């Protein structure tokens, strides 16, 4: 773990560069410590798979002063026993998903690449609880992992120009919902009728890195009743 | 009072100093690309420095005022006209009810900042009035201006205002060629020493893809990577890293070919490495670069970056002193 200065008011903490539950737990632990100790200085804190991006208020602290404080905290995490970096009180968020072929635009294609039936793909996807590893790309887009190997199909070769809002996709071991209509190359297997981002709410999006996400399959009728569209 | 949009220009949106604090949700900073020009335009009309203004890229809008107001235009060389009569940039002037503000062709720079006394009164969403078009967030209905829009303006007393203008030494104008200072970054060591040298010595040109999301540069030699072990979870291209957050001003070089400097509306993260980060003082300058403009990347230390930041701050206090 090291602190790297990237610009006048931005530093990045780099962890071991790989995607793993253990690194993710360390990232979360450090993020929580920073929230508790350095909130007065921090403008934006963005945890990701194996790094934390921090911008801070130069009117309140100078660059070196912030780096010094941050290094004191990273030492605490570094010296913590491994079993000490267990997850704290993270939320479980349940999201209803309609896994029908009308909205699961790539389900059929995936049966060919995986050799599984549509029912098996859906079953394998929703039986697991996922973890939020990172947020970004577009507002409220949460990168969730990890998808079971048999359905961890790579991104599509040609991205779609527009993926409908609410679409649930798979890209390798990652799975995510598109909160808005947007271009995208993930394999789409279903859609949620829920609104994941509301700019008039505080916070505008419920997801936080470290949260657990469970997808609950719903019927076409339930999808429509909840305001889902085709 | 309000302003009616007769023609919107090429790409005109409401911006203030931006929306920090939501980057972790994938909501970018937004706000004016040339923050110096934005602040000065507000100071000229007697607004708070961070009031909402219009940012007009490459071509000005045509705006009809329904009440008297003070206006100032800073940034790009785009001469303002009131009912056809030429006014100056970097100066305040009066516009009367029923008069139309329009613009001459762009002669220098890329983005003009149009401040109106009182400030543009669109709703504050997540702490800012700035428009983030990709996320349909903020500004006027979450989008750039269109003909027939009626922009609400805060009421303010303009009876005591006197027309002012900013001394040339306090205007921020793009140099030729653009020199973009950057701090070599976390992944600088991932390119060969030879590529580090060509990246700095080559003259790059601004590509046509130059907008609020990012500025792409062409014409320099492609970068070679040193051999590496592909990190678990990172993509297979040598320019891939384990997905992480992109700092504001990051210079990413997908596949090593064309550098892209990420600006105010950039996506918050992804899987491309960054050779470094452009210092904040020069991010303003990037917002004023036209396509095809020759530019070079000049490496600086953190110390030098902090000095440049201080200098810009001092320049702004001179503007404040001058106008008060």
Automatic annotation (TrEMBL), chain A:
Keywords: ATP-binding, Hydrolase, Nucleotide-binding. Residues 1-207 form the Carboxyltransferase domain. InterPro entries: CT_C_D, Cyclophilin-like_dom_sf, PxpB. GO terms for molecular function: ATP binding; hydrolase activity. This is KipI family sensor histidine kinase inhibitor. It comes from Cocleimonas flava.
From TrEMBL, chain B:
It comes from the Bacteria. Residues 24-315 form the Carboxyltransferase domain. Keywords: ATP-binding, Hydrolase, Nucleotide-binding. The keyword Nucleotide-binding applies. InterPro entries: CT_A_B, Cyclophilin-like_dom_sf, PxpC. GO terms for molecular function: ATP binding; hydrolase activity. This is Biotin-dependent carboxylase-like uncharacterized protein.
